[in-house]
Structures are given as structure tokens and as C-alpha cells.
Amino acid sequence: MKYVEEVVQMMGDTPRIPSEEERRNFVFKPEDYRDAVVMPWYRNIEQPVFYYVAEILENLTPSSPFPDEEYSSFNEYFIKKYNLEIYDQKQNLLDVDFTSK
């Protein structure tokens, strides 16, 4: 997909992991995610996977119930699966579609 290749080229080298301070200071801005491509930095950074943001889910936040009964919320999912705390509890969740290079 040419669009993803252009995004990767604009990003430069493999995306970096944000510092703890950057994560704590992060404030979700919906306009930054409309018609955007995102890469989960907390997964395999050596082989990044990209997703197109299909929709910003304005009715869901990290404290919303997780669709699988194994986790009570998206917060719990991220803590247990990735050992990550989501600091911006007001941020909306994203509905994404897998894309590839």
C-alpha cells in the first residue's frame, strides 16, 4: 500500500517507544487520529504493524467494559497483557483496520 509506505518514510527510522514522561503528559486529541495510520509501539517494535483509524469511538474510554469477559475493562486488559497503565482516562478508543506495506 503506497500510503503506508509514505507514512513510514515520513516517520524516518522504526518508531521509538515514548518515555514514561511523554506517556504521562499525553492528551488525546481526536483531530490527530482522524484519517490517520497508527502503530502500537508496545507490541513488536522490530516488525511494526500499522492500522488505519476507521473511527474514533467517542462513547468508549479505557475504563469501558472490555468485550471479552476475561477482562473487566480496557485498562485491565492493557495492564495484564502489556504491563501498561493508560494515563489519559478521558481518551477515546479507536476502531482500527489492519493495513500492510
Q: What is the CATH C-level name?
A: Mainly Beta
**What level of helicity do the residues show?**
10-25%
Order of helices and strands: HHEEHE
Contiguous low-pLDDT stretches (5 residues minimum) are: none
Number of domains: 1
Average pLDDT works out at: 90
Oligomer: single chain
CATH topology: paz domain
User: If helices are DSSP runs of H or I spanning 4 or more residues, what is the number of helices?
Assistant: 3
| Radius of gyration, whole Å | 14 Å
Spatial ordering of strands, largest sheet: 1-2-3
State the CATH architecture. Answer: Beta Complex
Beta-strand residue percentage: 15-25%
Protein name: PAZ domain protein
InterPro entries: PAZ_dom (IPR003100), PAZ_dom_sf (IPR036085)
Domain PAZ: 6-101
GO molecular function: RNA binding
Protein model, in words:
This protein has 101 residues and is an alpha+beta fold. The chain has one domain (2-99): paz domain (Beta Complex), CATH 2.170.260. It contains three helices and three strands; from the N terminus they run ααββαβ. It starts with a helix and ends with a strand. The mean pLDDT is 90.
The gist of it:
By secondary structure, the protein is an alpha+beta fold.
Blueprint (SSEs and pairs):
Layout: H1 2-11, H2 20-25, E1 37-38, E2 50-57, H3 74-82, E3 93-99
Antiparallel strand pairs: 1-2, 2-3
